Amino acid sequence: MTTLQRTLAEARAAGRAALIGYYPAGFPDVESSIRIVQEMVAGGCDVVEVGLPYSDPTMDGPVIQQAADRALAAGTTPKDVFAVVRAVAEAGAAALVMSYWNPIERYGVDAFAADMAAAGGSGVITPDLIPEEAGPWISASDAAGLDRIFLVAPSSTDRRLKLTCDASRGFVYAASLMGVTGTRDKVAATARKLVERTREATRDSGLPICVGLGISNGDQAAEVASYADGVIVGTGFCRRVLDAPDLDTAGARVRSFAAELAEGVRAAAR
C-alpha cells in the first residue's frame, strides 16, 4: 500500500471522507510554500497535492493561475516541487503532485517517477493525460510504485468512466463541473450524479472517488463528504495566502481554513 492508499483506507474505516488540499510549490517562494503545506497538514489535511507550476494551466482558474505565475517568476523548478513533497510527507500526510503532462515529459518520465518516489511522494495527478496516451507513465509509475490519478468529468461517457477508473490507482479524480478551478457559492449539482455513475465503474475494484472544483467552505466540504471518498480544495488555500499581508498571517489563515474543512468532512461521517 502507498501512503495515499493507506490514508484513504483509514478514513473510509473511520466512516468519513479524506480532506485533500492543493497548493502550488514555490508560491510565493519555495521555503514559504513549505511553511504553508505544513500548516495545511496541521489544520487537518490528510493528503496534500503539490502543484507543479506551469505556464499553460488549462484546468486552473484565475486564483491558482496567479499563484502559479508568482511561483514561476520566483524560479520554481521540479526539484523544488520534490522538496515540498518531501516536507508534506515528513509532516505526516500523503503527498501527491498535480502536474500537466508537458513538464513531466520534459523532465523525463522515468526520472520524474523515480525522483517523486525518492521524495516520499505517493502518486501524481495528471489532468491533461488520458489513459490511451499514458503508456510511458503507466510503466514508469508501476516501476516506481506510484499511484496514478486520472480525471473524469460530467461529460464522460460510461465507457470513458470505466476506462479511466481501470487505469487509475489510489483514487479517481471526479471534476464536479465542466470548468476551471475556483470557489463557488454552492457545489455543482453534477457532482453527486458523477460520483454515482463512477461508483458503477469502480464496483469491482472499490477504487476511491474524490471530488474537486468549486468547494470553498466547511458546509460544502460536508456536503461532498456525504457521498465521496475525498474532498479536494485548492483555490481557498491560495486565496488566503494571496490576501494575507505577511507569511505568519497567511499560515494562520491556512491552518484555520483547513480546520474548518476538516470539521466539515468529519461532520459528514457515514
From TrEMBL:
First-level EC class: lyase
Keywords for this protein: Amino-acid biosynthesis, Aromatic amino acid biosynthesis, Lyase, Tryptophan biosynthesis
InterPro entries: Aldolase_TIM, RibuloseP-bd_barrel, Trp_synthase_suA
Catalytic activity: (1S,2R)-1-C-(indol-3-yl)glycerol 3-phosphate + L-serine = D-glyceraldehyde 3-phosphate + L-tryptophan + H2O
Active-site residue numbers: 49, 60
EC number from the UniProt entry: 4.2.1.20
Pathway(s) of this molecule: Amino-acid biosynthesis; L-tryptophan biosynthesis; L-tryptophan from chorismate: step 5/5
Molecular function as annotated in GO: tryptophan synthase activity
Known partners and oligomeric status: Tetramer of two alpha and two beta chains.
Family: Belongs to the TrpA family.
Described purpose of this protein according to its UniProt entry: The alpha subunit is responsible for the aldol cleavage of indoleglycerol phosphate to indole and glyceraldehyde 3-phosphate.
Name listed for the protein in its UniProt record: Tryptophan synthase alpha chain
Source organism: Thermobifida alba
Organism classification: Bacteria, Bacillati, Actinomycetota, Actinomycetes, Streptosporangiales
